Amino acid sequence: xxxxxxxxxxxxxxxxxxxxxxxxxxQVDAADHHPLVVALELxxxxxxxxxxxxxxxxxxxxxxxGGGRGISLxxxxxxxxxxxxxxxxxxxxxxxxxxxxxxxYAAGLxxxxxxxxxxxxxxxxxxxxxxxxxxxxxxxxxIYANNTLVTLAGCAFRxxxxxxxxxxxxxxxxxxxGSCGGSVISNCLFVGNMDAKPGWGSSAxxxxxxxxxxxxxxxxxxxxxxxxxxxDASGAGGICVEKGCLNLINSIVYxxxxxxxxxxxxxxxxxxxxxxxASYCLFTGDAAPYIRCTGxxxxxxVIYADPKFVTTDAxxxxxxxxxxxxxxx
Length: 329
Fold this sequence. Notes:
The structure is a single chain. The chain is built from 2 helices and 32 strands. With about 325 residues, it is mainly beta. The longest helix has 14 residues.
């Protein structure tokens, strides 16, 4: 079991990991869990490998560069992350490649549990967001999970940005791929996240993107809000179910955008191998440009309306930079 619950500002990299952990242990023991600071100049490695290390509480992983992952996890252990902040972890490699997991990369874990944690401004550098050169591709700008049972509870995903790589089935702020059936996302907020397609290919986008191993594998999403997210990929700004089943319950999916086509989809894209069972939910609209379905949808007690957010759709769209798929957030 890896439990991440620690200091206020921690930044770990391969060359800094030993020093950071030593400082962490000292400050946690000596300062009664007061904020911990590790110098940003230590952040020089591509990936933070945190397997098997207990890292304390209230962690802020911020400003990691290199390959862009805040934390990289693999193996069969169970990982719990509570009351943390992942901010500004961006891919800044200058070569073409398909990075995954701007803040968290999880492969083959027994379980990944993330509770009451903020993910903000992870993914790619905004300076590269609309760049023409084939750099800085990234899928799962906040979380990429492969063959991992995932539980997200009480988390917020804000202003994460990605440029999906040039192949089908990538993109997303949270991308669950492979054997992730049985995962649960509850009481989470997704707002102002962005995906920009490089200009070719068939990347799918979607703030939540499911690409599960079988059509029967299911993910539950309960009491969540996905609002004002956007994509320039071929999928929806809100949810893209490429393969597998999403049970969407008591949730709001509103005001999302798909900028590459006025026909959408904006809120929901259900592809041929996908199923969405939605109950007691709110969407912006009941057809194009809001919903596209070549798979299966089963809607019960669903409404199409304005949720009356304090921040209006017009106010959000006013923050969009002219001629780009980028919000000034």
